[in-house]
Amino acid sequence: xxxxxxxxxxxxxxxxxxxxxxxxxxxxxxxxxxxxxxxxxxxxxxxxxxxxxxxxxxxxxxxxxxxxxxxxxxxxxxxxxxxxxxxxxxxxxxxxxxxxxxxxxxxxxxxxxxxxxxxxxxxxxxxxxxxxxxxxxxxxxxxxxxxxxxxxxxxxxxxxxxxxxxxxxxxxxxxxxxxxxxxxxxxxxxxxxxxxxxxxxxxxxxxxxxxxxxxxxxxxxxxxxxxxxxxxxxxxxxxxxxxxx
Length: 245
Ligand code: MN3
Hints:
Shape: globular
CATH architecture: 3-Layer(bab) Sandwich
Radius of gyration: 18 Å
Bound molecules: manganese (III) ion
CATH topology: minor pseudopilin epsh fold
Number of domains: 1
Structural class: mainly alpha
Number of helices: 11
Largest sheet: 3 strands, antiparallel
């Protein structure tokens, strides 16, 4: 696509201004908005960054298609519907909305927790996985994991345990906590780590919709397979961004 010099200039000025405004509100939000650049306010379903079958054999194409096109799409649609009469909230960065969940009117608060959480959690989740990935992290993330958990193996066991112990539907997460330390947590339903001041670096969806078609009741097999698609590059980007913010 051809764009002229004036268009390019006005685009970059607008971009810088938007970042500056966001930075004024809260540096960590500015980073998050930047990292989640395909999650604009107004709540739209981001494109899956790879084909439905790209994570095979670990996660099957039909699961990915239903998970993204139906489940995630429904969270987005329900969030937009819930906030249709609250245009000032509809304009917000969805992460900011979750961080400030106590300012959301009581009548729609739980709907925002469920569907705003679902939207943000899944937007992260798609990028936290990638084809031809898995293995172990390197660099700063690897050092931070070793320092927090003793070793990569201990971290891996810890996150897998949290995923297995989550009763019913929810998530297990590696987060950066308020003190700037790595921590493993688990959240129920679509509760977002951002609501409790945690910054998610890596998360696994253990709702049955994430694995049932291929793994049925065998959540342990899904969790084990999922490690083969972890996108450590994105985990490192998130970590670096949070540390800078
Ligand atoms: Mn899900």
